[in-house]
Design brief:
Oligomer: single chain
Mean pLDDT: 91
Number of helices: 4
Largest sheet: 10 strands, mixed
Helix content: 10-25%
Low-confidence stretches: none
Length: about 220
């Protein structure tokens, strides 16, 4: 299945503008301080959401959904819920990796929630593309043939997923990965198309920065 990421959510962490500007989205949502990152790149978002504490002011040239600063969910999670309620089934997260480690962790949690909800989701930044595969949603990822580079796959959550990796330098078939194991670190592309799949659990996949059109979920 060819993936078309229909909605981009842009947060306040490091923004990979070059990657973003090479992609096309049906909707672009500024998540709090991500508004300024978009404006600096010459992009006017379609919507802005958050408590706007990072931004320091409320944008006036775009429709907004403002939330109180005292809340249970992160602005990224609220933006993801906004996208889901409006029928977007695929979301790209920018400006959510790097910077504060706890914010990065929260972004990965939002990715996992998206995956378990049956959405295709990926986070882009710091030279990487990160996604989560889930047996509750899209459980397999196909990638084109890359001659070089590494990727990593780790269990996400306490339940050990059964992971299969084919076409890579190190192939595995239905291996149980625990969340306290480093087994999935640094597999290598070997010039063949790669398929990564999980059964009965969730796994986070870390890839080199690549066009989102290279990601094919099933």
């Amino acid at each position: 299945m060819q993936t078309c990421f229909s909605c981009a959510l842009v947060g306040a962490a490091a923004f990979d503008a070059r990657h973003f500007l090479q992609e096309r989205f049906d909707a672009v949502v500024a998540v709090d301080g991500g508004y300024e990152a978009l404006v600096r790149s010459g992009v006017r978002p379609d919507f802005a959401i958050g408590d706007f504490d990072s931004l320091g002011y409320v944008p006036r040239d775009v429709a907004i959904e403002r939330h109180p600063s005292m809340k249970d969910d992160s602005d990224t999670a609220l933006a993801l819920d906004w996208a889901r309620r409006r029928g977007f089934d695929s979301v790209a997260f920018y400006g959510v990796l790097g910077g504060r480690l706890d914010h990065t962790h929260a972004a990965l949690a939002a990715l996992a929630h998206a995956a378990r909800s049956g959405m295709r989701a990926a986070a882009i930044g710091e030279g990487s593309v990160v996604t989560v595969l889930s047996s509750q949603g899209y459980s397999a990822l196909d990638l084109p043939a890359y001659d070089q580079g590494t990727f990593s796959v780790f269990a996400y959550g306490a339940f050990a997923p059964l992971v299969t990796e084919r076409g890579s330098k190190y192939e595995i078939d239905g291996v149980a990965m625990r969340d306290d194991s480093t087994l999935g670190l640094s597999n290598e592309f070997a010039g063949s198309a790669v398929r990564i799949a999980v059964r009965e659990g969730d796994a986070a996949v870390y890839l080199p920065a690549c066009p989102l059109s290279d990601l094919r979920f099933s």
